[in-house]
Design a protein that fits this description.
The chain has 250 residues and is α+β, with helices and mostly antiparallel strands. It has two domains: 2-107, Alpha-Beta Plaits, CATH 3.30.70.580; 110-228, Alpha-Beta Plaits. It contains seven helices and twelve strands. The chain has helices at residues 19-33, 76-85, 104-107, 122-134, 179-183, 201-212, 242-249, and strands spanning 2-10, 49-52, 60-70, 93-98, 110-118, 139-144, 147-152, 157-163, 185-193, 221-228, 230-231, 236-237. The strands form three sheets. Strands 1, 2, 3, 4, 5, 8, 9 and 10 form an eight-stranded mixed β-sheet that branches. Strands 6-7 form a two-stranded antiparallel sheet. The protein has a two-stranded antiparallel ribbon with strand order 11-12. Helix 1 crosses helix 2 and helix 4 crosses helix 6. The two termini are 21 Å apart.
Length: 250
């Protein structure tokens, strides 16, 4: 059995798609593409697709990952092409590699996020970021399946900075905000370590409200720019598929 690791995006209006709907879209796509995917055993077999580190509903992403178990060896480039052609626009398959040793989930240690806040000045966001970084702990609340939970949103944040709106970047979710809108926005860049409990971008924004009363005039636009191993030396997020490419090249 071969395992193929896939990077895909969640763009535009499809950022509001739930993880369950995305799973169904991939199941339909592998059937339409005719890929020789391995199936689970039992009375109701399902294609063996596994997901890791899925972004929350409402957040766009350039760095979503999954793994497909194949019943026979396939070229990963061909898998990417045929699977991408069978997916709806917005759920785009951008990379595929043959899986090397180790679990993919273990490499997804942190995410880099951008958050676009309308009606917030750059000066206000700079002041809020300064207050956030100076705090040792900032507790926020979130409703979970087990009820209201309170936890520290500060400890998981490796870095947080306000970006000048003129900075050229994958920084702003370019599929979701125009240049005119960006000029009236404040843009945040955050690297957040994965852990338990999971700290989401909305938790970071809740913490900024807690320490500085920061409020956006409309719902913030959130996008995951990268997800992967965390370099503790400089706080950057790497490519989780790089180790698989190294294994192939060697």
């Amino acid at each position: 059995m071969q395992r193929v690791r896939i990077q895909y995006t969640k763009r535009g209006r499809l950022r509001f798609t739930s993880h369950r709907d995305i799973s169904r879209a991939f199941e339909r796509a592998v059937r339409r593409a005719g890929l020789p995917v391995a199936y689970s055993s039992g009375f109701n077999p399902h294609p063996r697709l596994s997901y890791a580190g899925a972004a929350p509903t409402g957040a766009a992403s350039e760095a979503e990952y999954m793994e497909v178990a194949m019943a026979q060896t396939c070229d990963p480039g061909t898998v990417r092409e045929v699977l991408d052609s069978a997916m709806p626009p917005g759920l785009d398959v951008v990379d595929a590699v043959a899986a090397g040793p180790g679990a993919l989930a273990d490499r997804l240690q942190a995410s880099r996020w951008t958050m676009v806040l309308s009606g917030v000045t750059h000066a206000a966001i700079e002041q809020a970021v300064t207050g956030f970084l100076a705090a040792e702990m900032i507790e926020v609340s979130r409703m979970t399946k087990r009820g209201l939970r309170r936890f520290d949103a500060r400890a998981a944040v490796v870095s947080l900075r306000a970006l000048p709106t003129a900075e050229p970047t994958s920084a702003a979710p370019v599929d979701a905000v125009s240049e005119e809108q960006a000029a009236a926005c404040a843009i945040l860049n955050a690297v957040v370590r994965h852990g338990e409990p999971s700290v989401r971008p909305d938790d970071v924004l809740a913490a900024l409200r807690e320490v500085a009363g920061l409020e956006s005039s409309v719902a913030p636009i959130v996008q995951r720019v990268a997800q992967g191993p965390l370099d503790s030396r400089d706080g950057t997020v790497g490519d989780p598929l790089a180790a698989d490419r190294d294994t192939r090249d060697n």
